[in-house]
TrEMBL record:
Lineage, highest ranks first: Bacteria, Pseudomonadati, Pseudomonadota, Alphaproteobacteria, Hyphomicrobiales
Protein name: WD40 repeat domain-containing protein
Top-level taxon of the source organism: Bacteria
Transmembrane annotation, as ranges: none
Organism: Aureimonas flava
InterPro entries, sorted: Apc4-like_WD40_dom (IPR024977), Quinoprotein_ADH-like_sf (IPR011047), WD40/YVTN_repeat-like_dom_sf (IPR015943), WD40_rpt (IPR001680)
Domain Anaphase-promoting complex subunit 4-like WD40: 262-323
Pfam family, one: ANAPC4_WD40
Length: 325
């Protein structure tokens, strides 16, 4: 078994991440915890944290709370307010290129650029999630009946991608060719962006709550079943007409979190009973990383070099697993 540095917190761990080489945990109580080398507690949100996501373009953790604040926490263990929506809740945050930050408040998506200019993008229904494209200042939002695409630096009309139902999460493929949304029903939906062709990804027994792209974007790993479901995206048609891989199958519990290794074709899988596996995509070979615990392993994150895996659970258990240990 790999070595685990265990941590215990008082509340639900919303997000585990690494800032450079240091593990960091965002808790639902509004605090950001740096446990390594003597714990530092950063009071980011006084009234509770609603969302937290590492910025893929910069070493910082972005978070939004019930206090209406968007906060950036850096590896120096300091936090700074990026934006404020008054008494309105921040439901989603995302980091973009060039220091841009996106966030959602009710029916409006906001993009604040590094030069402090903020643009608003109004919607007819609640903005459930948002994401930046891998290149260029383009942002996608998840909403009822589909997704919307905006060029954040212009006033150009949005490109609307329609599909009936509630869409609660959104992600671009690493090469920017596909957009995928999580639906309120037990399904994903996708579009090939050059022509708008639809991609239906169904068959889940429960709602998908975790997504992760493999290192080169060949697969999209997802939770929502007794196995990690990996949809193939290497061809021009994405998963259309192709069956997904099923890795780490356990009949007695569900997968609740997935995290693909940053360099190798390996996926870490977290289960509802707290167990964590690492599975090689090519041959489905499994390695047990953690036997289980008192709560579901809801969040997983690799360090940039792919040696350490941070995890957090609903019960406040957390830790860092040394894969080479």
């Amino acid at each position: 078994m790999p070595q685990i540095a265990p941590y215990s917190f008082d509340g639900h761990v919303e997000t585990a991440a690494f800032l450079k080489d240091e593990p960091v945990f965002a808790l639902s109580d509004g605090t950001i915890r740096f446990p390594a080398g003597g714990e530092t507690v950063v009071e980011a949100h006084a009234q509770g944290l609603l969302c937290a996501r590492p910025d893929p373009f910069a070493p910082r953790l972005l978070s939004g709370g019930e206090d209406g604040r968007v906060v950036a926490t850096g590896p120096d263990r300091q936090c700074a307010e990026i934006a404020s929506a008054g008494r309105k809740w921040i439901s989603a945050v995302a980091g973009g290129p060039g220091g841009a930050v996106g966030y959602a408040v009710g029916r409006t998506a906001f993009v604040r650029e590094a030069k402090c200019e903020t643009r608003e993008f109004a919607h007819g229904r609640t903005v459930e999630d948002l994401a930046f494209a891998p290149k260029g200042l383009r942002i996608a939002t998840a909403r009822y009946d589909g997704a919307s695409l905006f060029f954040a630096g212009t006033d150009a009309k949005a490109q609307e991608l329609e599909w009936k139902g509630a869409h609660t999460g959104v992600a671009f493929s690493p090469d920017g060719r596909f957009l995928v949304t999580v639906m309120q029903e037990n399904a994903l939906h996708g579009w090939r962006l050059d022509d708008g062709k639809h991609m239906r990804m169904t068959g889940y027994p429960s709602k998908v709550k975790s997504l992760s792209w493999s290192a080169k974007g060949k697969f999209l790993a997802t939770s929502g079943a007794p196995a990690a479901i990996l949809w193939p995206f290497s061809g021009k048609d994405g998963p259309m007409g192709k069956a997904p891989l099923e890795l780490g199958t356990r009949g007695d519990t569900s997968v609740v979190a997935v995290a693909c290794h940053p360099a190798d074709d390996v996926v870490a899988i977290g289960y509802a009973d707290g167990m964590i596996l690492a599975v090689r995509i090519s041959d489905a070979k499994e390695a047990l990383l953690r036997r289980g615990g008192s709560g579901a392993a809801r969040t997983l994150a690799w360090d940039p070099k792919g040696r350490f895996l941070a995890f957090g659970t609903e019960s406040g258990e957390a830790g860092v697993i040394d894969i080479a240990g």
